[in-house]
Fold this protein.
Amino acid sequence: MIALHLKKLPLTREVSLLILAYLYVPIFVLIAYSFNANRSATVWTEFSFAWYGRILANPSIQTAALNSIIVASIATVCATAIALLAALATYRPFYGQKMVEGGINLPLILPEIVTAVATLLLFMALGIKLGLLTVIVAHIGFCIPFAYLPIRARLNDLDKSLLEAANDLYANPWQVFRRVTLPLLWPAVLSGSVLAFVVSLDDFIMTFFVAGPGSTTLPVYIFSAIKAGVTPEINAISTLMLVISIVLVVLAFWLGQRGKQQ
Amino acid sequence: MSVSSTSPALNRALLLSPVVLTLLALIAIPLGIMGYISLLPRNVYGGVDWQANWQLQSYVQLFFQEGFDGELELNWVYAQALLRSVFQAGGTTLLCFLFGFPVALWMSSLTPRRRNLMVLLITIPFWTNLLIRNYAWLIILREHGWVAQSLNALFPQAGGITLLYNDFAVSVGLVYSFLPFMILPIYSTLEKLDWRLVEAAYDLGANRWHALKRIILPLSMPGVIAGALLVFVPSLGAFITPAILGGGKTLMIGNLIQQQFGTARNWPLGSSLSFLLLGILLLSLVLYALYSRSAAKTLRRGATV
């Protein structure tokens, strides 16, 4: 083991702390402004929950929030199921494995604007009316890799002798899956589905293109509100979304760590 | 359940069919339709003339326009946006490296517990809403915000500094958005680095700067190149940052594509712009593949010498 002091290089600590500030100061500024009583939002007057009351009572925000939750829930369930099946098929080597895995990760590499436009053209060419359904279908596509990666990683680390033992004890493949594989995989399945949920909840570009008039989600609502100008209401709803994402991601991280320790 | 252990290939095909079908339906077929549309002329009402013959007009349009006498002349509008995108993405990549490398270096010198915490702290912004994070910069940089006001109070001779709706603001937003993609791959190569080599360099009288330049940096190159790819690709296709912080003046390819499907209603042109973007992306992926192959070769050679 190399002594830690050998790895220390001058200034890296200071630069790192500055970079952490760069990453977090904007988030805290936004949160702070959402509690500012003053409408002009440039001057701080006093602490207030007023804007949160306003947004909770705003019917178009309520509809957008409901749409976001519906889309994210359905897309997450479908994407996680598809990803789980795919991970079970790909963790043992086979001919074409690299191609399949590359395909699954494609949504992470392709620029979202291109995928979004292409998906819009698909719905147009098929004559499908844009609405909540088109948003859900489009979200399933890019949620799959986020659900797939943690499950796949967990399968890799899985103690294969447990599966063999179950086989030796005359469990059929379905019983092995139900009684051994799935319980061991469960933390990763949960962690992957939480990540898929967060990604779907936060998505803007894809939804912006494939949402119809009645199917606005929260990010799309926020975008059009930003275009109209900075308001304390946007600060409040943005803060709520940030907090939800952060809580969910920390939960996913914790689930992942727990899965590793088992 | 009729899952039999007799045919693993059939099992695998059954398990893979949902994901393959989804990928076909949501990526392959849509891209195919987009390719088809890019070869069709625009309809008078906006949209596409499905009955027309194939032509390359929408690709010609990217660089040329028809003059008054019907001859083609160079059209700089799209080329400019393309160049701006490439420069912005390149600059973002460079800045992310300059900021990200020291952070990755520092992280690798921490105790395992603190490393995990730092990984989480670097990852969290990535999982929060990109739109909202760019909006937060809009609040910080705007005209009557305290940053612009204090800068103008400090430098009154500059004659009113504006921080928003220019290339600077887009740059700040892009670096902010994609910095984690640079830090994490570099960190993961540094984590696996054999620090005994660095120790040997110190024993042989190298100072810290030499050890960094001759040992640490070359050995962390795979992480740096992977990070560069992960930052360059999304920066090039960025849409949200220029839309919010560029304010319609500093357009990038992503915004041009969106315009063709919004107000301009020129789907063939939007499709050909998308393929241009995909082309550049493919080129950088090929360069990356070539790099990693030659790097692997050097490593093997190093091992046998």
User: Anything to note?
Assistant: The longest helix of chain A spans residues 59-90.
